[in-house]
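Re: the multi-chain job from yesterday

Posting the exact lines I submitted so nobody has to dig through the queue logs.
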Amino acid sequence: LNYSAKKLLTVVCEAALESRLIKDLTLLGAKGYTITQAHGAGPRNQRNGDLEGGNIKIEIVCEEKIIELVVSSLEKDYFPNYAVSVWLSDVQVLRQDRY
Amino acid sequence: LNYSAKKLLTVVCEAALESRLIKDLTLLGAKGYTITQAHGAGPRNQRNGDLEGGNIKIEIVCEEKIIELVVSSLEKDYFPNYAVSVWLSDVQVLRQDRY
Amino acid sequence: LNYSAKKLLTVVCEAALESRLIKDLTLLGAKGYTITQAHGAGPRNQRNGDLEGGNIKIEIVCEEKIIELVVSSLEKDYFPNYAVSVWLSDVQVLRQDRY
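And the result, structure tokens for all chains:
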């Protein structure tokens, strides 16, 4: 089986940011994304997701170059104003042209 | 704490495939699976999950031998006909007899 | 970009355990968590999540010291009585003070 190394970026934020974030991800080169509804709490004890449409978890699998662009955008445009959690991990994919 | 190395396989596909896929995973030796509802878009700009029951994300944690069988089945039986995203990562588990 | 290595712990269990588990995670030092609804099956062929409120998947990103405490608590207080799946992986985070 012919695997390729990619990065999986997971972003958790308020659901109200979904359309804006998807637009940004797509413009920066992400070819796809998977979104699940979530709820939770962050480090300032704020509970998110119980009100106002909840939280979303967005996952994108990309090459590192795209991830860097997305993470830079998150840092600049989202971190100052929103409770956003972001983590990155290594994954292997098949059909690497999809990512 | 007594960890064992396993593989986590994540499969994102249309929800209509759930029962067929679970049957295949189980026959191939996966002892368990976790499914969450999802929506998203893939590399051909198709939006999935907004219609027709949405997408699902299926996660299985297995030893590599089972993963190979599952991935081969996905390649042969699902990739030609369905929009399926698959990624693989390394995880550590406790109670390795569960996987 | 300034990444820090952390651990991602994923716990899948029955939804009825949510409030108890969150209380324990928080007491043990986890600063945040993300919860998604799930369903699935485990190694004893039990199907969970179709009845009684379903399953939940809880994800926490922490430093290894906290993860060890949480996993020890799971082993002692949850594994003997509940169907709980747990896996651990390596992630990179930004803004490490959040974790």
